[in-house]
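Below is how a single chain appears once it has passed through the pipeline. First comes the sequence as given, then the structure the pipeline wrote out for it. We keep one example in the README because the format questions we get most often are answered faster by looking than by reading.
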Amino acid sequence: MTTRAVVLGGGGPVGVAWESGLAAGLEEEGLSLRDADLFVGTSAGSIVGSQLALGRPARELYEAQLSIAGGDRPEMRPVQRSIDIGPVIQAFVKMYTSDLPREQLRREMGEFALNAQAMSEEEWLSTFGRESNFISWPDRAFVCTAIDTATGAFVTWDKESGVPLGLAVASSCAVPGVVTPITINGRRYMDGGMGSGTNAELAAGYERVLVVPVFAVGRPRPGANEAVVARLRQRFEDELEAIRIAGGDLSVISPDDESREAFGPNLMDGTRRQPVAEAGLRQGRLEALRLRDWWN
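Resulting structure:
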């Protein structure tokens, strides 16, 4: 039997909404991401990937996004609001325009994350402890990513790591300058997207791999920093090449023009969940027509 993997990239509340809608649209048209043998999630992708790995219907994830957008749920207020990401963008640009060693740059980002005025661990963790959705690791292989703030080392969490699922996912989503790094076994961890938005090379060795970046890799936004875009694109291409070298047949779904328009300028703007989820649903239905036979 062909082994299949799905890689879900990072992108804040906007990314969660889009990936949830996308998965629902794909599933409606006969392409179920829940059939994957491996789920790789970074940041937003760790939220959606963990739930798909647990077997939650994609439509349920989509409707949850609409519910968050349409109601005042106290436990979800930390991820509903629009957050200023200007400071983290400045730090991110430095990380992707410097020629210093990657781990050194991530250590500097970790120092920034630890010293920033950001959402507390307690407030952030409350959003992962409200229901049963993040209590038990799925039986299907699921891995999410994070960065050690002290060493800059890239780490992965899975069922064998001994870390509670909710804590692992929370660390993968701890955006520097937005959320205080998460404490796990006495160490502090920040968003896995500080290493890569997708970390798709973790799916190398699987025969069929679907990669879903939230950051469009084809055409950058007007005014985007060209040096950053070039390095992000090269990093992404290197990840895809690692999959190909290992014998994987891969496909990529990146946001189309309508989805990108729905995103707006700030991926941390949780107030855009509804239009973004709806754009993802529409795109998912279309992408299923292209990829259904390949995936199944």
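Confidence is low (pLDDT under 50) at residues 72-80.

See the next section for the split statistics.
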